[in-house]
């Protein structure tokens, strides 16, 4: 499938799949979307909460993709003095030539952490890697349907391609796997606000909130395992 590097509205890059009219991140701003959906609506809950999390904040990302969400989470972990155990699942990893064209480090003014971003993409798959003192990364080359995690994670970044092109990733079957993967009081955040997605989440047991969406989207969803 043809793949192109696209500049989004906030100046940050993403990968565009013209055959699907689909991007890895919002064309209205890749970095803006990542901060709004995954950091503001997800990660910061565990930084500002009175509830103590023992050890690291455990995060499962559905769609590791360009590494943007992981890199921003690393930066926020430093800011909030949090240790992070990050698992990124990706069936079709991006290739090195594409990684080299991504401008996230410069757009985030994070040049002193360029080696961290590079390391996230360079480390081997399917084993836990120490990226920094506060950030462990496990990249799993795996189809989402194969996930069998049980009570492992505080937070899920659900960043799969949209339901128009991959409806099988937005079903009760998948969201039951997500529900099982979370610890009690764990949270899943996603850019999607489709009614069918919300209902699928509710059917498997999630309590679901509609939140204000990132630029270009009216709403997004946050689901909690009570």
Summed up:
This protein is of the alpha/beta class and 226 residues long. It has helices at residues 30-48, 68-80, 96-99, 104-107, 114-122, 172-181, 195-203, and strands spanning 4-7, 13-17, 22-23, 57-62, 84-89, 129-132, 135-140, 153-158, 182-190, 207-212, 219-224.
Q: Mean of residue pLDDT?
A: 96
What is the assigned CATH homologous superfamily? Vaccinia Virus protein VP39
Q: How large, in whole angstroms, is the Cα Rg?
A: 16 Å
One letter per element, helices H and strands E, the order comes to: EEEHEHEHHHEEEHEHEE
Q: Helix coverage percent of residues?
A: 25-40%
Number of domains: 1
The N- to C-terminal Cα distance equals: 40 Å
What are the low-pLDDT stretches, counting only 5+ consecutive residues below 50? none
Question: What best-fitting shape do the alpha-carbon axes yield?
Answer: globular
Write the CATH architecture name. 3-Layer(aba) Sandwich
Order of strands in the sheet with the most strands?
6-7-5-4-8-9-11-10
Question: What can you tell me about this protein's structure?
Answer:
This protein is an alpha/beta fold and 226 residues long. The chain has one domain (38-224): Rossmann fold (3-Layer(aba) Sandwich). The chain contains 7 helices and 11 strands. It has helices at residues 30-48, 68-80, 96-99, 104-107, 114-122, 172-181, 195-203; strands at 4-7, 13-17, 22-23, 57-62, 84-89, 129-132, 135-140, 153-158, 182-190, 207-212, 219-224. An 8-stranded mixed β-sheet has the order 6-7-5-4-8-9-11-10. α1 runs parallel beside α2 (68-80) and α6 (172-181) crosses α7 (195-203). The chain is globular and about 40 Å long. The N and C termini lie far apart (40 Å).
